[in-house]
Amino acid sequence: MTSSPELLRPGSYVYGTWHSHPDGQTLYDAVYGRPVAVLSSEGVDFAQALAYGRQKGAALRRSTFHERARALKALATHLMERKEDYYTLSLLTGATRRDSWVDIEGGIGTLFSYASMARRDLPDERFLPDGRVERLGKEGTFVGRHLLVPREGVAVQINAYNFPVWGMLEKLAPAFIAGMPSLVKPAPQTAYLTERVVRDIVASGLLPEGALQLVSGDPGDLLDHLQEQDMVAFTGSAATAAKLRVHPNIVARNVPFSTEADSLNASVLGLTVQPGDPEFKLYIKEVAREITGKAGQKCTAIRRAVVPRALVEAVTDALRAELSRVTVGDPARDDVRMGALVSVEQRERVRQTLSNLQKEAQIVIGGERDLLGGDREKGAFLDPTVLLCPSPLTASGPHELEAFGPVATLLPYDTLDDAIELTKMGRGSLVGSVVTHDRAEATELVLGMASTHGRLLVLNRDDARESTGHGSPLPQLLHGGPGRAGGGAELGGLAGVRHHMNKVAVQADPTTLMAVTHEFVPGAEVQEDVIHPFRKSFDEIQVGDSLLTHRRTVTEADIVNFAGLTGDHFYAHVDEIGAREGIFGKRVAHGYFLISAAAGQFVSAAPGPVLANYGLENLRFVEPVGIGDTIRTRLTCKRKIRKDLRPGETRPTGVVEWRAEITNQDGALVATYDILTLVERARDAHDPQPELPADGPQSTDAAQA
């Protein structure tokens, strides 16, 4: 081992300090085989690291979803400004600029996505009310509701080598939004890139102390010190996952363990597709891209190309032509499209698997090509390779052996049922794809494959322009799969946040439950004021503020005029004979008339802090209202949602959600719905300060003006 000062020495960031060790595992450049880093976790106290995360996590849990989202967005901006440093390091892993874009900017983009989702869909609270309020007693004085609260432990995240940036950030983002600190353990081969990103995160000071720790090197006895509130998320081989899952401490303490493991993903070319169709070209390009992207080192790559038997020769010829244009070599060169595998050791593992696959399949596309830079022996290069398994329904190798490199196997099929069966023989996959323009065929394949896949892509001429492709997990959708794929549930939008929270059922009287959840609960005590609620600013309105309106008797003229105004002459409203024969037995008012009449009852007409109607949700008509019935409306503040100022906006606002309940003369509920109003609020510390004129205020009066 060399002690050259040029070597990178990735450190571990634990219990608030950086730790490094002069000796350790030597890591080599994937392209030329030169030593690039020395890695060691020697001296790290794993028990202390976990205890530190749990203790410091209290500050993170005390923040709200929106505060965490703002921090995550600021962090994403900070990292994006430094991305070129990450691209430079990524070249050492064998990745091209295009490959690194998925890892680096894809990872940072995940931070942006989770920050946006949290601000849009989560309350500005430390907890998340889940589902509806359940009435548990006849009189409504005993109710229940589920809440989600942060787990009071550490999310231990053990990542694979192939995506050293995205792999970390896609786990960090939902955990952080949920209020759970992370301890990241990257794979050694590319840990120096992960460490560089973490150094920038720590230096930024944008995350609370303890929210992120890093272990560079061997994990030691880390798992021995896990407790019940901790979690583990593992990405790697199914064999390693199986060993970790039954770790005695994990089993004894029932520590949640999530896995994203091996996946022999399949892509099916539909029976209806012909060589001249756009879908045929799309299929060839997609398979070729998945073989060569990241040199095939993607958990979502296409390993099995399931094609109609009659098209095997055409697909082979087209793939050969497409792959012949892929240049291999030093990823720092602009003319190189595919770089190296992460290490020589990884290349040898792929070669061994390829040899085993050839027991039931033969190579139809392969052979070494000239390298454009790089070292064929010391570097970790392997050329794109395609095999053909003529009898895939009776073979086992293509469905059991994953060559984690630029390798795929063609599997011929005769019927759609055979194609579905072939995809299922992988025993569970992260992703599958179907390429066809025939909707009936797509439906049969999707529904047939759905039970054994975490994500399914239907690719055709209509969505190709916007499609992110077979191998691209998205923050909004599930990344995980059943069976062999590990049963994990990463990303998936806010499901990834909920995964890091504890679900508790809270039972109480309505008023107490309202106090706990900060949301109005039907049956809770309300506060009525001489000041109309629409005359109050966002800051002045409180959950439970309520208005009971004056009464209004519905007349025949109301119904006739509303029908004339809207053009809605449905018989139940305007046809006396037809209405008597209908389900109500009489003419009834339009449902939308009731909503309009209720608005007339509760609005405050003069200009004020309420700026606009922002929307209407959860509308339900309960009882009919006929001619001569009398209605009144109770409007109650249900919850408040602060809005950030957008670029160009100068007027701070928030959204107030109101529960509207329309009742008749007997007190029976006839309609209920939620109204969203945009309400002016005071400027606060989170708002950008207004810009002063270039020459500044001329006087106190001018400044006030």
UniProtKB/TrEMBL annotation:
The keyword RNA-binding does not apply. Residues 543-644 form the MaoC-like domain. Residues 45-445 form the Aldehyde dehydrogenase domain. Keywords: Oxidoreductase. CDD domains: ALDH_MaoC-N, MaoC_C. The keyword Oxidoreductase applies. Gene3D superfamilies: Aldehyde Dehydrogenase, Chain A, domain 1 (3.40.605.10), Aldehyde Dehydrogenase, Chain A, domain 2 (3.40.309.10), Hotdog Thioesterase (3.10.129.10). Residues 682-705 are annotated as: Disordered. Coiled coil: none annotated. This is Phenylacetic acid degradation bifunctional protein PaaZ. It comes from Deinococcus hohokamensis. The lineage of its organism: Bacteria, Thermotogati, Deinococcota, Deinococci, Deinococcales.
